[in-house]
Amino acid sequence: MADRALRVAIVGAGPSGIYAADALTADGAHSVDIFDRLPAPFGLVRYGVAPDHLSIRSVRGTLEKVFDHPTVRFLGNVEVGRDVTVAELHDHYDAIVFTYGAARDRRLGIPGEDLVGSIAATDLVAWYCGHPEAPRELIEDALAHANAAVVVGVGNVAVDVTRVLAKTVPELDHTDMPQHVLDQLARSTITDVYLLGRRGPVHATFTTKELRELGELVEADPVVLEHDLQLDDASRAALAANRVAVRNVDVLAEWSARAPAGRPRRIHARFWSRPVEIVGVDRVEGVVVERTELDENGAVRGTGVIETVPAQLVVRSVGYRGIPLAGLPFDADRNVVPSEDGRVLRDGAVVTGEYVAGWIKRGPTGIIGTNKKDAAASVASLLADAAGLPRPASPEPAAIDALLAERGVAVVDLPGWQAIDVAEQELGALYGRPRTTHHDRDTMLKISRGTPPA
Ligand code: NAP
User: Fold this and answer.
1) Closest residue (by CA) to atom 13 of ligand 1?
2) Closest residue CA from atom 7 of ligand 1
3) How many CB atoms within 10 Å of residue 81?
């Protein structure tokens, strides 16, 4: 255990970083600077959890309280690896905890993936959550051309994007989505959303509560083909071992038996369907889908039976992916920073003073709460190493502040973020909502410096 107060840098102000800060500062012993490349904290709680999932987003209230600890500072709008190097952080802190998540999309690796109109779910989610770096033009152009959308993947992110595409604006306008997002969704001409699972319903990774919501939308009928629900022996065995899958299959069976209510939109949940090509001349016109089955080893294989689903929008929702950070090792096969018990591994050897937690440690799985335990475990390793950590050359907070100021980095500190927070509530009040997200980085920076938005 530490016999002196440690100064720890945390890279990434998402749930894992904030939970790590909480674990380090709860008893007031240590101090923490939480860096984030965005001007706002909360990571995927702000920029990933669907805005209409208010109860999940409410975890923000718990995370926010961690910033009340007198020894926790927020240094937003600072990109580690660009504005300050990992080596420089070592000069200023006893230890660094990397919690920068998994910000990018995984690729499908099929022809046509880059056609106009084929977008990553990570980008669509970033757009509707008001992420400052969301590719707004690309998303809005894709949405403006779509009557039918194919969402590839059957995880909870796929269900989130399907729900947002199929909801009416009255079902969304209590959320903190930016106004341009609500306006674009109000103009939507999408009538059909196809959710494609490359394996059977038993193997889908969505959870039942999320799935069930798709059957409760005001203007959308769920459609399930009865033959997609027929189970082979391997699927029956998998079902017997998975209670979530049993509930999911019950929901899908109920939809399949349901007479369509004639609503203007339809959500088609399709299984045993893998995309093999996205087709179109200048932009997406359809997705070529091959029927699949399980082989004797339980792996998915194509049957050669092909159909083309006409669609002008493809949303690839096949998982998030971590990316390397300059100055840190990276496992390019698993898209994580290699680690053992939360300690970073350099060339296979444990390094004390560098730790990881959250998605960049484990990969993009689990619910928000999973990161609390995960961060606490990494912090326990850090504290176990504390006695042996070399003292940094410049541990005073003023030293790192001076370095960033010298480089002209417009750091958003806690009062700066709190000003943005208040401005978002004021903007929301103009629309009769609790909050409307500010999505533009320059505007956020101006507000953080006390300049009201134009
Ligand atoms: P996920 O659950 O891993 O789902 C990825 C989906 O993509 C799976 O259906 C997978 O199918 C499919 N897939 C992968 N490669 C494919 C390919 N080449 N072709 C076709 N399909 C492919 O990931 P996620 O939906 O991105 O969610 C990430 C994490 O966040 C999960 O832990 C999720 O539960 C969590 N989350 C939770 C909530 C919530 O609680 N409400 C909301 C959003 C996200 P296979 O299984 O066949 O590989």
Assistant:
1) 318
2) 318
3) 16
**Which helix (H) or strand (E) element contains residue 95?**
strand 95-98
- Distance CA(104)–CA(254), nearest Å, equals 35
CA–CA dist 265, 287 (Å, integer): 19
- Model pTM score: 0.96
Q: Which atom of ligand 1 is nearest to the CA of 210?
A: 41
User: Is the CB of 364 within 6 Å of ligand 1?
Assistant: yes
Decide: 52 in ligand 1 pocket, CB within 6 A: no
**Ligand 1 binding pocket mutation candidate from 205, 210, 301 (most atoms within 8 A of CB):** 205
Q: Whose CA is closest to atom 29 on ligand 1?
A: 365
Ligand 1 pocket member 371 (CB < 6 A) = no
Per-residue CA distances from 98 to 34, 83, 349, 453 (Å): 10, 16, 17, 33
- 36 within ligand 1 shell (Cβ under 6 A): no
Quick one: which H or E segment has residue 173?
Answer: none
Kindly provide the residue ranges of all beta strands, DSSP E only, lying in 155-212, ordered along the sequence. Answer: 192-196
CB 24 within 8 A of CB 66: no
pLDDT tens, residue by residue, 394-444: 999 999 999 999 999 999 999 999 999 999 999 999 999 999 999 999 999
Asked whether 367 lines ligand 1 (CB < 6 A), one says yes
Mean confidence (pLDDT) of the chain: 96
DSSP one-letter code for 331 = B
DSSP 201: G
**Based on the number of CB atoms within 10 Å of its own CB, is 242 exposed (0-12), middle (13-18) or buried (19 or more)?**
middle
Q: What is the pLDDT of residues 123-143, one digit of tens each?
A: 999 999 999 999 999 999 999
Provide the CA 237 distance to its chain's centre, in angstroms: 32
| CB proximity list for 71: less than 8 A, separation 6 or greater | 25, 28, 30, 31, 32
For ligand 1, say whether the CB of 290 is within 6 Å of any of its atoms. no
